[in-house]
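Pasting as-is:
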Amino acid sequence: MPADLAVIGLGHIGLPLAQAATAAGVGTIGYDPEPPPPATAAPPEGRPAAHGSLTPPERRRLVSAGFRTTDDPAVLGRVRTAVICAPTPLGEDGALDLTAVADAARVLAARLRPHTTVVLESTVYPGTTEEFLRPLLEEGSGLTAGRDFHLAYSPARHDPGNRAHRYNNTPKVIGGLTPACTEAAAAFYNRLTDRVVRARGPREAETAKLLETNYRHINIALMNEMAVLCHDIGVDLWDVIRCAETKPFGFQAFRPGPGVGGHAAPVDPNYYSYKGRSLGYPLRMVELAQEVNTRMPRYVVQRCATLLNEHGKSARGARVLLLGVTYKPDIGDEEGSPAREVASRLMELGAHITYHDPYVHQWQVLDRPVPRADALYEAAAGADLTLLLQHHRTYDLQGLSVKAQLLLDTRGATPTGAAHRL
């Protein structure tokens, strides 16, 4: 039986879409020329531990619900809706690399049929759907977007580990090339989510994604600068935030950390500022936020060295235990996590690094495997410094603060006075 939907690209954007569509009863196939790695394989340095952040039980449930994957492009010619979820990593020139989007477009175009709805969900710059994707689809298919097939952009809004906001109760923004394109895409997404928000066009939908990302990115940078300031003047920032967030208007609480990770935050602002410079007006605030957030791992390492020194120890030869190496709590995705840079800088200072993370069973830094601590309390008691980088729910921080010789908490998760905090 032909499927209703083809998801092209089975990473952090494509798999949540496939899960939502399958759960809604939409016949779904996943096309990816690069199959997922075995669950037991160690990830390449700097990449997530799990393909698309799905656990083996989640993968089994998805397959049992009827979802199937293929590397045969012929199936793309037998669906009513095709959604491109190809990765767009940051290139060496500071721009998003659209190679995977182009590859997906060419494969789809060769098999595109009239009346198909094509949606792009990959993170891109404003204008990509019209100026980059549309010509590839039209040239490869001989069809005209907006007349022979529908074309739209819809930004991904997946928040891994969020138990309150799932795919079905998170509004979906859609911007079509024409009003008819918008309605065709809306008809599809109405099957998956409670609310569809119609943008004026693809550019507005694309820019909405950048605005959402930059809003978070800039506010985290503000909190990171406040963390450094408050430490220097002897103020408890975490108490400041607790007080400030009681204001019922004009304030939303963000919190500092050892850096900004994830699939969007480190990428979108950089590309947006790159795009701004090419037009002659750089987005200064976005560039500054990127600068502040990227220096946080270095600041954390400086705090580690200072703490060790204050307790008569040197970073060289110190035993440092890292707790939590994923970019978010309670998931196994390492994409963009600042833990890797923190670890590499500590290693360069001569520290001996071990780590613990309930979701990551193998970890590499500087192309070397990092020993994993299996007995957590014993490891904390034996380490000269325990560094909390990610607060997973399974961590008993009160117990760890008692066992650890020194505990530096970068997440403000420990009770007041139980540890040194960022």
